[in-house]
Amino acid sequence: MKTEKEITLESHAGFVAAKRRLQELQSDLSGAEAEQRTIERRISEARSRSGIEAEAEGLLTGASEPGVNQGDEQELGRVRHRLAVLSAAIRQQGEIVGNEQRKASLIVCDGLRDEYEKLVRNIALAMIGLGKAALSERHFRDDLEGAGIKWYLPVMGFGAIGDPRLYETKITMYLIAAIVLGCVSRSEVPQDWLDAPRGWGCYLDRAIKEREATQPAAATPVSQRPQSAAKADGRAHV
Known about the structure:
2 domains, single chain, mainly alpha
């Protein structure tokens, strides 16, 4: 991901410590699993031996099965218990890592808010331009049809974005979100897209009120920040 700042969670001590502890537990689990496989292999090999020799060895060692060392059985039980404890600890530590990742990510994202909102502004302005161009193309075809001229040219309208004058089209829903976020201003949208009866200005007003009611007062929207303020921290204003 390309940004104007280095993106990393490694500078957040809580996340780094939690992640390191999780890696240690996972390493311990791998070691215990390897130990379990070794003991199980010894027991399996012992069980595969048969006859008088195996029974005699069992009699001498006190194994519960002929040929199986009782110490191996006890050790296997201990290792299996440790595996269960480590697995539970890893699950719990994974939750801790997730919590620390969320806290660190919130800090990182807050520091990148201005940069991201400028990207959204670029998209929104491009959509406004695309909407204007798409309507011009549609008006061109409508004018010819109104004059009784049959259409013999390729139809190259961009209907995928929807009519920017209507609510709930793709372009309109994006622009409403961008305006509510403060990335573009209402005045940058053609007024006839907002005006009733067909426009979506009333829906925009409602969305703005809902955000104001649920969110604390935000910083100056990126669409209203002066050029000089954007340059003060070494970033170009979009």
